[in-house]
Amino acid sequence: MADFTAQMQRIEKRLDEYLGGQPSAEAPASIAQTIAKDFPTAEDDVESYLGPLWQSVTKLAQGASYDHPAQDKLVNMVSEVMLLPDDQEIRIWGDVSNYTLPHTLTRSKISQADGRHMKEAKWKELPLLGAEFREQINGPESADDETEQAKITQSWINFHAFAARLNGKGVTNWWDIPLWMLRQGLEEDLSSAPKLHDCHIMTAAEIVEHSGAIMLASKVIPTEELDDTEKRMFAPGSLFKGEAGYTPERWTFWARRLREEAAKCSSDEVKNAALRAARLMEVWLDRSTAGQR
């Protein structure tokens, strides 16, 4: 396999300059074009190129505070990658389920020689970004050292704020992870892990803030009928007794839980974010159902 260290260093340098300075309006598209230009032609090199690329993007997102303009800049760059022309062939070999979220799959083929799966993708699918996102959802961890815990918490919130922005801007359409995070933070008793209380609540608030409106319009109001696998994947947590998946009842429960947990937050910043998110959910739902009354 080819070594893409030089290419990654060049891209990372441009990303650092882009996020930290006052770049031209063309900078995001220019970086995306560089990514496409350096893209390997050999199928066996695709993962070696895209894996480190998305790892770099994720690391930058984790390091950019959830309320910093760098988050939006990074979203704009990923958006430009999504808009790259469809004429570049991207083939990924291996277990396709490890590479992307389920509903981003396009055409899959099976090699008769060794039974491996091949996914043919386009840049608009942001190939392998879903796999990188899945690597980030186990946690957050609890640390004994307060400084280390603060770093873990901040990184976790920053990442999910970034992911929520991508969904909210229509760059991605991945609604599995947000539901799991809302379930983790709002449908379970958080008293057993007090160090992570504010982390879970702030994460939920950021998901609502940056993708709640489109979540309601595309997932909650037009409630989908789930198959048995989806019912298991999107099952309620221990505190919610309703149906699996996105539903108006679950949305209302989340808003109520945000208000309840806001009173328990140790930080005024998190408390205010939770109350704001709850109010946004109430207003959006009221507006969306006003014509039905």
UniProtKB/TrEMBL annotation:
<dbReference type="InterPro" id="IPR022085">
    <property type="entry name" value="OpdG"/>
</dbReference>
<dbReference type="Pfam" id="PF12311">
    <property type="entry name" value="DUF3632"/>
</dbReference>
<dbReference type="InterPro" id="IPR053204">
    <property type="entry name" value="Oxopyrrolidines_Biosynth-assoc"/>
</dbReference>
<protein>
    <submittedName>
        <fullName>Uncharacterized protein</fullName>
    </submittedName>
</protein>
